Amino acid sequence: MKTVHDTSVQSHDSDLTDPVGRIALFGLILVLTLLLAGAKLLAQDTPGSSRGVFRPIVGAYVPTGDQRDFLKDAVLVGAQAAWNANANLSVTGSFGWAPSKDKITPGDQTIDAFQYDVGLELRPSIPTLAHTTPFIGGGIGGRTYSYRDYSVDSKTNFDGYGALAFDVISGPIDIRVEGRDYVSRFQPLTGGGDTKTRNDLALLAGLGWRF
Asked: pTM of the predicted model, to two decimals?
């Protein structure tokens, strides 16, 4: 038999988890939309050429500067979908999730950080060594912070990044190693405080399928 207290606790837990689910769903929809758009453009291209790639990614989220006083290092998982406009230019959409820890708030609080962005990648036309192609990139997007077990509203901030990376291509397989430097607008999740600029790194590796 459910009591008023049980109903209250259940409602409280739902309030905490629902925003996280909605954010994750948004990120997956973003990546899938970019993938479908790339597939549509593929149908218009000449046979035998690669017009896009989809890759799961895994790596590390590394806060730096003031951000490191707030969050701990964390594993980073997600996905990327890209459309190759030509041999030198690609448009890439990314979604990532990092379950970090708050260093300041008591109670060993977990913060789910969701990153979603769209950017451009520039590369040489010909692989430089053993099918390896370096590239530089940059883009803009958003970062959402959501406490997992703490009754505080999620907050979303604007951010941008620069990237250095390389792809190793063999047939339909694409192996990527990438480093991103993010600069973001940050507003404290609890209490007061001014909005500030924060910095962090994302170190990624991915295994993709070219189509």
From this structure: 0.76
